[in-house]
From TrEMBL:
<dbReference type="GO" id="GO:0016491">
    <property type="term" value="F:oxidoreductase activity"/>
</dbReference>
<dbReference type="InterPro" id="IPR036291">
    <property type="entry name" value="NAD(P)-bd_dom_sf"/>
</dbReference>
<dbReference type="InterPro" id="IPR020904">
    <property type="entry name" value="Sc_DH/Rdtase_CS"/>
</dbReference>
<protein>
    <submittedName>
        <fullName>Dehydrogenase/reductase</fullName>
    </submittedName>
</protein>
<dbReference type="Pfam" id="PF13561">
    <property type="entry name" value="adh_short_C2"/>
</dbReference>
<dbReference type="InterPro" id="IPR002347">
    <property type="entry name" value="SDR_fam"/>
</dbReference>
<comment type="similarity">
    <text>Belongs to the short-chain dehydrogenases/reductases (SDR) family.</text>
</comment>
<keyword id="KW-0560">Oxidoreductase</keyword>
Amino acid sequence: MNAPVALVTGSARRIGAQIVRTLHQHGMRVIIHYRGSQEEAESLAAELNQLRPGSAGLLQADLDQPAAVRQLASDALACFGQLDLLVNNASSFYPTPIEQANDSDWEKLIHSNLRAPFILSQQLAPALREQQGCIINIVDVYAEKPLQTHTLYCMAKAGLAMMTKSLARELGPEIRVNGVSPGPILWPEAGQMNQQAIQDATALKRSGEPDDIANTVYWLATAAPFITGQILAVDGGRSLALQGS
């Protein structure tokens, strides 16, 4: 009953679901957050609770709505009565060419990628402080070097990177705050035309797996007590090519 508790946003599918599975496999209780992927979320929760009854909770919230984010924080604490780890994984991603970007794009990309992680960190800091817990933000290699026609997304992730460092100073010593910056792991579901070129630009000449991110999150959360304010690139060396471009 005293197993650590983790809230992972956007964890019904893809990388978020693998993070949840990995944390659960290592004995944590998990809270699965989803926005629209109800069927996948319920299936994942059922799978984990079958393995260990009462070990997985399920919460729905639209992270574009600040009031819903605050309610998510409250509901997360009510699930198991404590919180040891917050993983801000949920993210919106799509191009916003300068001629087409509008107010709705600002709301969708800034709220989910930046404002929601801040609100959750703010609301859950007291509970995390009680547990000497940590926050892990899923950033992006494009937080440092921009992706063509994705200005709003890159701005939001750059803000998340700075938030990671700033909160590490503000919330220490009780709470550690770090980031994981994925490179080519899972391609966007809408497709990406230059997949081979991106893989060729990595030092390892290949894409990674969701396990690469999930295992890094687990390591930062449980085996890196003297690391805070850092953003670890898990990108097969993709950022090396970006730095040289």
